[in-house]
Amino acid sequence: MTPILAFDLETVPDCAGIRRLYDLPADLPDAEVAEVAFQKRRTRTGNDFLPPHLQRIVVISCVLRDDDGIKLFSIGEPDATEEVAIQRFFEGINRYVPQIVSWNGRNFDLPVLVARGLIHGVAAAGFWDTGQDNKDFKWSNYINRFHERHLDLMDVLSIYGGRGAPLDEISRLAGFPGKVGIGGDAVWETYRRGAIAAIRDYCEADCANTYLLFLRFQLMRCALTKEQYARECSLLKSFIEKQNRPHWAEFLSLWKN
User: Fold this and answer.
1) Which runs of consecutive H residues, i.e. helices, occur in 107-193?
2) Hey, which of 86, 106, 209, 256 would disulfide with 171, CB 3.0 to 4.6 Å?
3) Is 227 exposed, middle or buried (0-12, 13-18, 19+ CB in 10 A)?
4) CA-CA distance, 37 to 39, in Å (whole number)?
């Protein structure tokens, strides 16, 4: 089978980079540094959502389904630096050549990964291949919007340009758990408290929701039979049941369908 890699990431303001760009004092607290960037962004765009190059990756969560079964894992703080986490993600693409699956990944996750990867000088040959090394990639690669080597579910389900549904809402309407834990708006505050584990838990749950919606999409377009779909859902549920962690217990309690 073609490996499937569903992924999600969480970010915080790149305070070191913001200090450098805006010549801010080295001893200015991170919270105040980030607020400078937020204020500049509000003035320019009306919101404080920072551009990709100013968002430092804290964690990348993944669901990997291949011939060996299924795994759900995270890479990033506190076990790895941002550079190492990004490099491992792209090395996984090089190794497995998976179909990658995201929710709004084309507008957020991938632009952050490539901008931050560029800053750190990581290697990502497989991701950028559009036929130079592998001729098959000329017709199906990770870059082209309409190629399924990267399937951005939100983009596809909005028919490439409509208003995409929030992951939490469509997940819950489909009978899946939806958001579990801190919520995206609380990531920066949670990070400043040093609660990295809570951010990882939240990101992993989002990634699991994304994978479940991918399975439902495969059922909808008849790429999976009802029996195959049920087996794939059971495979993920069995993996989660073995993890014995509080956020997974909550996730399972909310999984209705």
Assistant:
1) 110-120, 125-128, 153-157, 167-173, 187-192
2) 209
3) exposed
4) 5
Residue 83 CB-density burial (10 A; 0-12 exposed, 13-18 middle, 19+ buried): middle
Hey, CA dihedral for 234, 237, 238, 239, is it positive or negative?
Answer: positive
Buried b (16+ CB within 10 A) or exposed e, 33-47: bbebbbebbeeeeee
47 Rama class: left (phi>0) / alpha (psi -120 to 50) / beta? beta
- pTM for the complete prediction? 0.95
Going by DSSP bridges, is the β-strand pair 4-13/55-66 parallel, antiparallel, or unpaired?
antiparallel
**Domain span holding position 200:** 4-254
- Residue pLDDT, tens place only, 168-185: 999 999 999 999 988 778
Mean pLDDT of the chain: 94
Q: How far is CA 228 from CA 223, 224, 225, in A?
A: 9, 6, 5
Extract the tokens encoding 161.
């340009």
CATH of the domain at 160: 3.30.420.10
pLDDT digits (tens, 9 = 90+) for 125-159: 999 998 888 888 888 899 998 888 999 999 999 99
If phi over 0 gives left and psi between -120 and 50 gives alpha, with beta otherwise, what is residue 224?
A: beta
Q: How far apart are CA 185 and CA 194, in angstroms?
A: 16
pLDDT on residue 1: 86
Tokens 């001893």 -> residue: 27
